[in-house]
Design goal:
Rossmann fold, Dihydrodipicolinate Reductase, domain 2, eight-stranded mixed β-sheet, six-stranded parallel β-sheet, 26% strand
Length: 329
């Protein structure tokens, strides 16, 4: 079969550092074209990163009849517009998380996805990863008893004051960038994408009105709970604990595991440590391989945005409302 031909909207760092290396590792797909608002920038970026062509304007990629799938690593505030345009053009879409800036935008995009001829994925890659498969198997076997609580952090230092993640008009903020990961993880591990029934939150706000740190909790049916924090002010940390009635799992990086990361099964004094990435693959590689196989009809598409994205967007919005409503803010 012919390779899946990808178009990339924008020259974001994640496209260069995560998507393209994983595309190469997954095989059966090629980066055919990248677009920027500036033609010279697109052409230079394409030459450096092994993309066949660089073009001016995102519409040029979507109008190209030879493009099978579109990767969208644009600022959050632009996701909805270009995802809908790409879906209506018949392209498969892999859009960076969060899928949209608000629940209302998410609903519009998912309505377009339901009537589209090609699928839409939100770029949470960890549900496709071997580590999460093993974790879910342990939970399904009841090896830590009934799961009661998930404790999760996702922090790193954002040093550039002009980074797009610090601007409200682009839907920036730590919960949109990294806090969304613990939310997605909790909904995945708490059986069947449940909706939270209670929200608490607080935050540190920038002068522009985005959260540089946010922490809070979501309670889910069955008195299960997620306690999490996210932020741009402290060193990189993704430590996560899944606590049950008979033990717990400690995962050093459930979201983008690297070869040095581990997950541990803890039952009293008995601790079993397992490498996070036995295959050594990049975190984006399994999802890109899956997309290629799904588009060829070799396996059914999994973790589609139409099945999962609305609940994530609703939870993010509820946490932001709760943080804004805190009396000290």
């Amino acid at each position: 079969m012919d390779d899946i031909r990808w178009g990339i909207l924008g020259t974001a760092g994640i496209a260069e550092g995560a998507f393209l290396p994983a595309l190469s590792e997954a095989g059966e797909g090629i980066p055919a074209v990248v677009a920027s608002r500036d033609a010279a920038r697109a052409e230079a970026w394409a030459a450096v990163n092994g993309v066949a062509r660089g073009v001016e304007g995102y519409a040029a990629v979507i109008a190209d009849p030879d493009i099978d799938a579109v990767y969208i690593p644009l600022p959050n505030g632009l996701h909805a517009e270009w995802t809908i345009v790409a879906l209506e053009a018949g392209k498969a879409v892999f859009c960076e998380k969060p899928l949209c800036a608000t629940p209302e935008e998410t609903a519009r995009v998912l309505a377009a996805a339901r009537s589209a001829t090609a699928p839409l994925w939100e770029a949470f890659v960890f549900p496709f990863h071997e580590q999460i498969d093993r974790v879910r198997e342990v939970l399904a076997r009841g090896e830590i008893g009934e799961v009661r609580e998930l404790l999760s952090r996702f922090h790193f230092v954002l040093e550039d004051p002009d980074d797009i993640r610090l601007f409200a008009e682009l839907a920036g903020g730590s919960i949109q960038d990294v806090g969304c990961y613990p939310i997605r993880l909790a909904r995945l591990l708490f059986d069947g994408e449940p909706e939270p029934d209670r929200t608490i939150a607080d935050a540190v706000w920038t002068e522009d009105g985005v959260d540089s740190e946010l922490w809070g909790g979501l309670t889910f049916p069955g008195d299960r709970r997620l306690l999490f924090s996210s932020g741009f002010l402290t060193p990189h940390d993704t430590l996560t604990r899944v606590i049950g009635t008979e033990g717990e799992l400690r995962i050093t990086n459930p979201f983008h595991p690297e070869p040095h990361d581990t997950w541990s099964l803890v039952r009293g004094d008995d601790v079993t440590v397992t490498p996070a990435v036995a295959s050594g693959e990049r975190s984006f590689t399994p999802v890109i391989r899956h997309i290629h196989r799904a588009l060829r009809g070799l396996e059914p598409p999994r973790h589609l945005a139409v099945d999962e994205a609305q609940g994530n967007a609703d939870a993010i919005a509820s946490l932001l409302r709760a943080a804004h409503a805190n009396p000290r803010n």
